[in-house]
Amino acid sequence: MREESVNTACGFCVAGCGMKVSLDNGRAVRVEGLPDHPVNSGRLCPKGASAIDYAYSQDRIKFPMKKIEGEWKRITWDEALATIAAKLLQVRREHGPEALAVVAGMTVLLSGPVGKGLMRRFCDAYGTPNYYSVDSMCFNPHLMAYVSTFGNFPVPDINNSKCVILWGTNPIASQPMKARRIASAQANGAKVIAIDPRRTASAKKADMYVPIRPGTDCALALGMMNVIISENLHDAAFVDRWTFGFEELAGHIRSFTPERVARITGTPAETIRQVARLFATSESASIVQGTMSLDQSRTGFQTARAIAILQAITGNVDSKGGFADPPLLPLRSLRLREMVRGKAIGEYKYPLAYRIWDREIGEGQGMVLHDALLTGQPYPIKAMIVQGSNPVLSWPNSSKLKEAFEKLDFLVVMSLTMSETAEMADIVLPAGTFLEKEDIMEIYRSESGIPYAMLRKKVIQYEEARSDADFWLELAKQIGFGKYFPWQDTRGVIDHLLEPTGLSADDLANGLAYGSIRYGRYEEKGFHTPSGKIELFSETMADLGYDPLPAIELAGEESIGDAGPDEAYPLTLTTGARHLTRLHSQLHNIQKLRKLNPEPLAEMHPDSAERLGIEDGEIIRIETETGSIDIRARVTEDIIPGVINIPHGWAEANANQLTSEQPGDPVSGTPVLKSLRCRAGASVPAGIRC
Ligand code: SF4
Question: pTM, whole model, 2 decimals?
Answer without folding.
Answer: 0.94
